[in-house]
Amino acid sequence: MQKILIVEDEKSISGVLQSILSDELKDYEFLVAEDGLEGYKNIEKEDFALVISDIKMPKLSGTELLKQALTLKPETTFVMISGHADIDTAVDCLKEGAYDFISKPIDINRLMTSVKNALDKEKLAKENQSLQKENVTLKKKVNKKYQMIGESATLKKIQDMIDKVAASDARVLITGPNGAGKELVAHAIHAQSERSRGPMVEVNCAAIPSELIESELFGHVKGSFTGAIKDKQGKFELANNGTIFLDEIGDMSLIAQAKVLRALQESKVSPVGSDKEIKVDVRVVAATNKDMQKEIEAGRFREDLYHRLSVIEIYVPPLDDRKEDIKLLVDHFAKLVADEQGNTPRLFDDNAIQALQSFSWTGNIRELRNVVERLIILGGNPVTEEDVAAFVRK
């Protein structure tokens, strides 16, 4: 029989956890350790399907237990329990390799969802060991499609963060200006995650009228409102076992924000006009070009939803902050345009590249891509500084 270890110094909490979980998970045996050191000694002796650990404990903190246990047995799955004041520490635990964290006071439904998902993940990992080589090949193909071009220190930092967070189910909020590449980051996270075989569903929250956003996200039943001529699945349901990407989340109405918050808390959605609740297993990645603290202060965005979405926050800087990547980006876009047109990639001489690097790119990478296509169509071969001066107005 597989075992689950609960590491918690408060006996009242460990007792409740053991009682509730053992009722639901009858195929597992439960052990309890009263501090981090005792927990580590248990992990030394035997393997556990899951370790549920508090963060603040005597002798050895949950953070140190996590680090030492994963050094000893990297395959061990951890769910961390944290008080409100420990949220920053809990986020650090995710970066160190924890599967999830649960805030105190503990929401039992949230706990059960996390534990079951963690156990499913652990089972899936064992079942799929024989398919690892195939998965690596698949991920490489997907990553190539959404690869981020550049060698700047800023971009490498983003790629390192993606490598760390992709393996977890932690929610990610991607911030940065329009056209900087936030969508590429979202796709890279999905492609490198264990959900990569599942769907990735994108929702542009700014493009959907506020009166339709609830139907778009959660679906509706026939006759629930004018124009609802048949049942419709929502984006959350379509993204089940995969990732939903909520782009421009800062433009979502407060009413819709409340519905999304409930969906995140309960892992369930209710279609418009229906009393039925549909259970969904979805990783949420969101993006915005807004200053969320200002949006919260202005009352346009719920602070509780912000904290739910931003377990991990990744900032994608403007192109002006990484101009050293422009040459590689130009070469990349020149090849893409050539492939689309069935031509040989056009060259850009050094002076043309220097001219492009001297500009301020308010439209960021999206604008640079358009300019490269324009220069390929209107300029010579190679594209020169004179071509840039003639056909690019800055």
UniProtKB/TrEMBL annotation:
<dbReference type="InterPro" id="IPR002078">
    <property type="entry name" value="Sigma_54_int"/>
</dbReference>
<dbReference type="Pfam" id="PF00158">
    <property type="entry name" value="Sigma54_activat"/>
</dbReference>
<feature type="domain" description="Response regulatory">
    <location>
        <begin position="3"/>
        <end position="119"/>
    </location>
</feature>
<feature type="domain" description="Sigma-54 factor interaction">
    <location>
        <begin position="148"/>
        <end position="377"/>
    </location>
</feature>
<keyword id="KW-0547">Nucleotide-binding</keyword>
<dbReference type="InterPro" id="IPR025943">
    <property type="entry name" value="Sigma_54_int_dom_ATP-bd_2"/>
</dbReference>
<dbReference type="InterPro" id="IPR003593">
    <property type="entry name" value="AAA+_ATPase"/>
</dbReference>
<dbReference type="GO" id="GO:0000160">
    <property type="term" value="P:phosphorelay signal transduction system"/>
</dbReference>
<dbReference type="InterPro" id="IPR027417">
    <property type="entry name" value="P-loop_NTPase"/>
</dbReference>
<keyword id="KW-0067">ATP-binding</keyword>
<dbReference type="InterPro" id="IPR001789">
    <property type="entry name" value="Sig_transdc_resp-reg_receiver"/>
</dbReference>
<dbReference type="Pfam" id="PF25601">
    <property type="entry name" value="AAA_lid_14"/>
</dbReference>
<protein>
    <submittedName>
        <fullName>Transcriptional regulatory protein ZraR</fullName>
    </submittedName>
</protein>
<dbReference type="GO" id="GO:0006355">
    <property type="term" value="P:regulation of DNA-templated transcription"/>
</dbReference>
<keyword id="KW-0597">Phosphoprotein</keyword>
<dbReference type="Pfam" id="PF00072">
    <property type="entry name" value="Response_reg"/>
</dbReference>
<dbReference type="InterPro" id="IPR058031">
    <property type="entry name" value="AAA_lid_NorR"/>
</dbReference>
<dbReference type="InterPro" id="IPR011006">
    <property type="entry name" value="CheY-like_superfamily"/>
</dbReference>
<feature type="modified residue" description="4-aspartylphosphate">
    <location>
        <position position="54"/>
    </location>
</feature>
<dbReference type="GO" id="GO:0005524">
    <property type="term" value="F:ATP binding"/>
</dbReference>
